[in-house]
Write a structure and sequence with these properties.
The protein is about 40% helix and about 15% strand. The chain has 4 helices and 3 strands; from the N terminus they run αββαααβ. The protein has a 3-stranded mixed sheet with strand order 2-1-3.
């Protein structure tokens, strides 16, 4: 996900990988529509995962790896702080990593 975002000049400010969702606070170029950002992230990450883990192709054959929908909102300074707070307290914080894996 980091490589995909870097390729399209999308900066991940904070993020968490959970069992059933991936909340991200990011910054993207103003000329990119949220739908295009999500299409690129979902497309590239699913391709990478299918290549790195071939058994996933069998499990998701004929299905989408990612859900079709997504939630996206623009934020102001106060709301951005609220989102950062949520992501930092989603589980035990590690100040050295802005994109964490949630433990099982």
């Amino acid at each position: 996900m980091r490589q995909t975002c870097e390729a399209f000049e999308i900066r991940i400010i904070k993020g968490v990988v959970s069992k059933d969702h991936v909340p991200i606070l990011g910054s993207a170029p103003s000329n990119m529509a949220p739908s295009e950002i999500m299409r690129r992230i979902k497309e590239r990450t699913s391709s990478y995962l299918f290549e790195a883990f071939p058994h996933l192709k069998k499990r998701y054959w004929g299905k989408h790896f990612w859900a079709r929908g997504y939630f996206c909102a623009t934020v102001g300074q106060m709301t951005a702080e609220m989102i950062k707070h949520y992501l930092e307290h989603h589980f035990e914080p590690n100040p050295n990593d802005n994109f964490k894996m949630e433990p099982d």
